[in-house]
Amino acid sequence: FGKLFMSLWLTFLLAVLTTFVAVIVADFPVTKPYIVYFIMMPPFVMMFAVYLMETLHEAQLARAELMKMEKMQIVSQMAASISHEIRNPLTVVKGFIQLLQTGRLPRETEERYIRIALEELERAEAIIRDYLTFAKPAPKETEPIDVATQLQKVLQMITPMAHMHSIHVSSSLEHGVVIGNVQYFQQCFLNLLKNSIEAMPNGGTLHVAAENRGASVVITISDNGVGMTKEQVRRFGEPYFSTKEKGTGLGAMVAVKIIEQMGGTWTIESAVQKGTTLTITLPASRLRPPTAEQSAAG
Ligand SMILES: Nc1ncnc2c1ncn2[C@@H]1O[C@H](COP(=O)(O)OP(=O)(O)OP(=O)(O)O)[C@@H](O)[C@H]1O
Ligand SMILES: [Mg+2]
């Protein structure tokens, strides 16, 4: 506010001073329009210009601040959820090591404790691997992947989980080659299929299809589960967005990042209480995947 008043005042003084000099030196005739247009108006125009500049500058500062805050928030959320996920296994391992330290346990118990401790450490390691790989910019080595083979493998992994929830799994998989990292590819579809299964707590049908369209391979995952609202569809893939009690909200983000890394795109069609269909389009490659893999697809 001080700046505005100053600009008004200074411009006014300058105008008066110039007129004063003009009157003395050149006997300048001071008329009414002159007073209005050259003495009264400029200070207000100047004040308005200063006001505009200040407002814009402030808005810019506010935006930069907001962006910084958002970044900080993401980092702290990430740190919080990862430390939360890792703390449990660490607590377990610590407890068992303390028990082992007493040295008065039967041999079998000792072995069991060591095994549990190792399993928990592996879990912690897996959490770090799954969630922190994407903090690094450089992707792992890529190779030609036959989508049918790899999707088949992922389907095998999730079948026990599907059966537990009385979910019928069907698939129609055409062969097609995309370029990517096999582990990432599996991770991506594991996350997505897990979401579909979790969306059908009372059973349903999960259908996975792969279609070879020449220039691209189109993979669809359909479930007739709880579905998503428009808002949920919009937020799909956003870190820490989860509607589940124990969800990390990182599964979809990781999947989306992997799809994008492979140069692919994705769309969601969903209706609440009807189901969800996820369509993933990946650019096809003419390269051949390792033959052993291809024959395994059958
Ligand atoms: N097939 C689906 N049907 C209905 N909702 C879904 C589906 N897939 C994802 N969602 C919604 O998107 C949210 C985010 O999914 P995401 O996989 O990132 O996290 P999550 O499944 O909640 O947690 P986590 O993957 O760690 O178990 C889910 O909480 C759910 O609300
Ligand atoms: Mg999930």
Automatic annotation (TrEMBL):
Pfam families linked: HATPase_c, HisKA
Enzyme Commission (EC) number: 2.7.13.3
Catalyses which reaction(s): ATP + protein L-histidine = ADP + protein N-phospho-L-histidine
Superkingdom, natural source: Bacteria
InterPro entries reported in the protein's UniProt record: HATPase_C_sf, HATPase_dom, His_kinase_dom, HisK_dim/P_dom, HisK_dim/P_sf, Sig_transdc_His_kin-like_C
GO function term, MF aspect, one: ATP binding
Enzyme class label: transferase
Span of domain Histidine kinase: 81-286
Alphabetically ordered keywords of this record: ATP-binding, Kinase, Membrane, Nucleotide-binding, Phosphoprotein, Transferase, Transmembrane, Transmembrane helix, Two-component regulatory system
Entry's transmembrane regions: 7-28, 34-53
Protein name, UniProt field: histidine kinase
Organism from which the protein derives: Geobacillus thermopakistaniensis (strain MAS1)
Lineage: Bacteria, Bacillati, Bacillota, Bacilli, Bacillales
